[in-house]
Design goal:
mainly alpha
């Protein structure tokens, strides 16, 4: 088992789970499974939330089983730890580049949402666990970051089926627990205010996940015990970080200019 990769995989899984919440599907879940909406359907929010989390755990376990099978193949191939770390470093750098749209494309991928008709057709345990599974497995609805795929890659390269399975379960649990973000909401005003704040932080979360992937790439590169790889990844990561930050500043500047123009035209 590659302990360093297991730790880094846990970091990537957490980042992927957080970023995945800022998706059309994630926002829909928070707007549909909350105390206000459940009361309107004459259901109990706590019960539905528990079913959602349970479903997400099973979804994470499903992802974990796939990752465990891949990890077993890597273990059987006998790939050296240093080689696995070097591959992981390049994979993390590539994932950050995809999320930054360096190649001209990027997330979201798999533009699919859960079927909201379930809310009126089925009992809470059905739509709660069903939605939870789809959210927890990570790749059946909107994929908002390449870190989801990177999580699988890192779990696979760990060469430990049990660790890979645990990483999948942790990802599913993290995604399932996000339903509790809506637990304090009691009025429609609370719901609207929550979604305004939620939407406003989306870009910051995206930037943070890119930063996490770059840090992980550099960490894996230096752990690979190859100075050439470490230096190359570090330089590339710094360049990508600068490019991403500059582009973000330019986008904010354009947004401010457009806002001022709209205000002046009113």
């Amino acid at each position: 088992m590659n302990v360093v990769l297991v730790v880094l995989a846990g970091v990537v899984a957490a980042a992927a789970a957080v970023r995945s919440t800022w998706s059309p599907c994630g926002q829909s879940m928070l707007s549909q499974i909350n105390p206000i909406a459940e009361a309107g359907r004459a259901q109990r929010y706590r019960r539905t939330a528990c079913w959602f989390i349970a479903g997400a755990l099973v979804g994470g376990a499903t992802l974990g089983c796939v990752s465990a099978a891949l990890a077993a193949l890597v273990d059987g191939a006998g790939i050296a730890h240093g080689t696995a770390l070097a591959v992981a470093a390049f994979a993390a750098l590539a994932a950050a580049a995809v999320d930054s749209r360096v190649f001209g494309f990027g997330p979201p991928f798999i533009r699919r949402q859960v079927n909201e008709d379930w809310l009126s057709k089925y009992r809470p345990w059905v739509y709660g666990s069903g939605f939870g599974w789809q959210i927890g497995v990570g790749v059946t609805t909107y994929v908002m970051t390449a870190a989801v795929v990177l999580t699988i890659v890192f779990a696979m390269l760990s060469a430990s089926p049990w660790a890979a399975f645990a990483i999948g379960v942790a990802f599913g649990l993290a995604r399932g627990l996000t339903v509790l973000l809506s637990a304090p909401l009691r009025t429609q005003s609370d719901l609207y205010a929550f979604h305004r704040r939620f939407a406003a932080t989306g870009e910051s979360v995206r930037q943070a996940v890119i930063a996490v992937q770059l840090v992980v790439a550099v960490g894996a590169a230096w752990a690979a015990s190859s100075n050439f790889v470490a230096i190359a990844i570090t330089v590339a990561a710094l360049g990508l970080a600068a490019w991403t930050w500059t582009r973000a500043l330019a986008e904010r500047s354009r947004t401010r200019v457009k806002s001022r123009q709209l205000v002046s035209e009113m």
